[in-house]
Design a protein that fits this description.
The complex is a heterodimer of chains A (230) and B (228).
Chain A lengths: L2 H6 L1 H33 L4 H16 L2 H9 L6 H5 L2 H5 L2 H26 L3 H9 L4 H31 L11 H12 L2 H30 L9
Chain B lengths: L1 H40 L3 H16 L2 H23 L8 H26 L3 H9 L4 H31 L11 H12 L2 H30 L7
Helix pairs in contact in B: 1-2, 1-4, 1-7, 1-8, 2-4, 3-4, 4-6, 5-6, 6-8, 7-8
């Protein structure tokens, strides 16, 4: 074990950590924005409307993230439309491709989580809202969506951790995230144990942080479910 | 289209390897999962501690990172040991590193599924087993194990679906599975998108078949359960 190499390269790891965090946070943000309409359309009773979002969810949950990322990173250049237009400035960047792939992927998973939760909304709540004279959009805004977000919280916490772990794939396509940093250190000094275990420890800390954060969030948002303290 | 047909044998060969990797790692993960679940539910504090550390660490570190640790690090470790023992140079293949990592990673997830399944077995059944004079091993094999399958099956199925998709990662360390071969085919025909689409479609077929199989298993193990 050579700790010196790791200490000397800590700035590189922190740079990677920052890239990982930005990448994960922004893809989760974009993914959540996409997931809400996907979930709403997927719960539609009309089969023609719900078909497309359901197919989207099926595709992104049924294929590996690595393949999806390669499809965008290596595959986009195949089309002249992309290659010849301004789009190429986006798709030639590894970072943009990874971000797009991650965002679309997490949109699929989050969409499925939200779809399941929306469908499990207690009918009595919706009935009560209707009895109070709320219109359909208002029922969604005031009753269904807030309760969905609360109930989806634990499953979404898992999805955030999966996204963090999936983001290591960015290192495969030349991005210097935590895994990319470890790859660089390993190839420079040939210290596989030290370099990758350091990256692993960083990931472990991030995971613990996320778990802790969601536990706090659940305590706040699920306060009404807690047994009463005497 | 002619490109796809020309490279289809190569990709199908890769698919076979993917399925092989998935099945062997499933076997390892089920064994580790059983061990882990029994350890977590045992009275021994050491066994509980080891199983707890195992599941926490595995679920906190990305599988890709674990795989590279085992692939690159394992190579050095094996040969350092080999040097002292006087073995010849041993090559850690991507296949072995991949199968071990995936088995090891999903062993942690299986531990949680099986633990949940065992906890869901009605306590009276286990007590009845003891009342008949069975020893703990007999109770486990004859009563707990068959009864837990039904409860563990849904999350076992989920783990299997995630596992098959995780096998794609082994292509990163050089195993010539279908993702790797699709990369080759896409490179030489300059149609990477087409070939990754083919691979995505094949993955959907694998998951589709698994879902049908899992549904049948579920039916088989839910015989005798009353439904409303």
């Amino acid at each position: 074990m050579d700790i010196r190499i790791i200490i000397d390269n800590l700035p590189l790891y922190f740079e990677g950590l920052w890239t990982t965090i930005i990448l994960v946070v922004s893809s989760l943000g974009i993914g959540l924005c996409l997931a809400i309409p996907i979930a709403l359309l997927a719960t539609a009773r009309n089969k023609w409307i719900s078909f497309l979002p359901k197919a989207y969810i099926y595709f992104f949950r049924g294929t590996p993230l690595l393949v999806q990322m390669f499809m965008i990173y290596h595959g986009a250049g195949q089309f002249e439309l992309v290659h010849e237009s301004f789009l190429w400035t986006i798709f030639k960047e590894a970072y943009a491709c990874a971000l797009i792939a991650f965002a679309l992927n997490t949109a699929g998973y989050t969409g499925e989580i939200l779809r399941g939760t929306i469908e499990q909304t207690l009918f009595g709540e919706i009935e009560a809202a209707k009895a109070c004279g709320m219109s359909v959009p208002m029922v969604y805004r005031r009753i269904i969506l807030p309760s969905t977000f609360r109930r989806a919280l634990p499953a979404y916490g898992n999805e955030v951790i999966f996204m963090l772990h999936g983001s290591a794939l960015a290192g495969v396509i030349t991005i210097v995230d935590l895994f990319g940093a470890a790859k660089i250190v390993n190839s420079r000094y040939f210290v596989p144990f030290e370099s990758f275990i350091t990256a692993g420890l960083f990931y472990l800390c991030l995971t613990f942080l996320i778990v802790w954060g969601f536990k706090r969030a659940e305590r706040h948002f699920h306060a009404y479910l807690r047994p009463r303290e005497n | 289209m002619s490109d796809i047909i020309a490279y289809l044998p190569l990709i199908m060969k890769g698919m076979l390897l993917t399925v092989e990797v998935a099945l062997i790692s499933l076997l390892i993960s089920v064994l580790l999962g059983m061990l882990g679940a029994v350890a977590k539910l045992s009275n021994s504090r050491i066994a509980k501690g080891i199983a707890g550390i195992y599941t926490t660490i595995i679920r906190g570190i990305p599988d890709l990172v674990l795989m590279t640790i085992l692939f690159f690090g394992g190579q050095i470790l094996v040969n350092n040991i080999g040097e002292k023992m006087g073995w010849e140079y041993i090559d850690v293949s991507p296949f072995i590193a991949g199968v071990l990592t995936i088995g090891f990673v999903f062993g942690a997830y299986m531990t949680e599924s099986f633990r949940g399944g065992i906890l869901a077995v009605a306590h009276g059944e286990i007590e009845a087993g003891y009342a008949f004079g069975m020893n703990p091993v007999q109770v486990f094999v004859r009563i707990t194990l068959p009864a837990m399958v039904r409860h563990a099956l849904p999350s076992f199925g989920n783990n299997w679906l995630v596992l098959t998709k995780t096998t794609a990662l082994i292509s990163v360390i050089g195993l010539q599975d279908m993702v790797y071969n699709a990369g080759l085919a896409g490179g030489s025909t300059r149609k990477p998108f087409t070939f990754y689409c083919v691979v995505a479609f094949l993955f959907l077929i694998i998951t589709g078949i698994s879902e049908i199989g899992l549904r049948r298993l579920n039916k088989r193990y839910s015989v005798g359960v009353r439904k409303a």
